Amino acid sequence: MRETTISDSDLSTLLLIRHFELALLDLFSRGELNGTTHTCLGQEHVAVALGPLLRDDFVFSNHRGHGHYLALFDDPVGLLAEIMGREGAVCRGVGGSQHIRRDRYLSTGVQGQSLCVAAGVALHLRDTRQGRIAVAFIGDGTWGEGAVYEGLNLAALWRVPLLTVVEHNGIAQSTATARQMAGTVADRAAAFGIGHRLVSSTDVNEVRTAAAALVDQVRVAGAPMVLEVATQRLGPHSKGDDTRPHEVIELARADDWYAQYQSAIPEQFHRLDDALRHRVAAVVREVQNRPPSTWDG
Predict the structure, then answer these.
(1) Which pLDDT tens digit goes with each residue over 18-44?
(2) How far from each other are the two terminal CA atoms of the chain, in whole angstroms?
(3) Domains annotated on the chain, with CATH
(4) Helix crossing, 266-288 with 76-84: angle to 10°?
(5) What does DSSP assign to residue 108?
C-alpha cells in the first residue's frame, strides 16, 4: 500500500462494514439468522471508494451488497433489521439480505439482472436527466451470465451513461475464475467498444482516484465504461461454504486492507477499530430486542 493516509470517515466506513459482516457470520453460527447471506469481507474498500462519488446517481448492487448499502447510507440498524426481519427494517423484512430497495439504490440476488436494469435506467437518464449515471456492481463470476452481454451490448449501442464496476475476487462461488472464464474482462469490454480500466489496490484513495476519472467520463460523455477492481473474497461464498485450501485463504488474507492499515497507521486504526467494533455490537443488541417486522401488503 503506497499511500498510508486515510480519512477518519473512510476508515470508519471500512471498519463499520467489516464488523457488520463479521457480526452476521457470528449470528448465523449461533442460529439467530435464517436464510442465507453473502458477505463482502475483503472487498469493503471498493464500496467505500465509490460511495462519495455516487450520492445523486442510481446504484444497482448484487447478492454481496451490504458494503455498497452501508457506504451509501451508514444505516447498519435498518440493514440488520431487514436481514433479521425486525421492526425498522429497510424493506419491512421482506427483502432480506439480498433484495434491498432504498431511494436510488437497488440490490438483487439474481446474477446479471442488475446490469440489464441499470442499462435501462441509464437510457432514461440519457434522455431526461443528463449528468446522472447508473452504476452496476457485478463480480467476475457474473460474466458467465448472458444478461451481462445483452446489457453491455445495448448500453454501447444506445450510448448510455452506465458504469459497470467489476469486483474481481478471483472465485465464482467455489470455482477459481481462471478455471471457468476464458480471456479477460478488458477483452470483453473492448468487444463492445466500451472503455475499461483495471485497478489493483486495496487503498481507498487510489481506487477512488481511478474511479472518479471514469465516473466523470461517463457523466460528461454519456458513454458506458467498465471499472475492474482486483480484490479478494476473505469469507465463504455464503455463510459457511468455503472449500478453498487453507493456503489459498491465507494468501488472500495477506492482501487484506485491514492488516495493511493496521500496520501503516496503528494509532488511528485502533482508535476507530475499537469504536466501530463497539458500535456494531450495540446495533446487534438493539435489533435483537426489537419485535418482528410486520407486513400488511
Answers:
(1) 999 999 999 998 999 888 888 899 999
(2) 50
(3) 8-288 (3.40.50.970)
(4) 40
(5) -
Q: In this structure, are residues 166 and 138 in contact, taking their beta carbons and an 8 Å threshold?
A: yes
188 pLDDT more than 50: yes
Q: Are the CB atoms for 203 and 264 separated by under 8 Å? A: no
Q: How far is 228 from 199, CA to CA, in rounded Å?
A: 6
Neighbours of 206 (CB within 10 A): 17
Cα separation, 75 vs 287, in Å, equals 12
Helix (H, G, I), strand (E, B) or coil at 179: helix
Give the residue with greater pLDDT, 69 vs 244. 69
Whether 59 contacts 72, CB under 8 Å: yes
CA 251 from chain centre, in angstroms, equals: 21
Adjacent-strand bridge partners of 137: 165
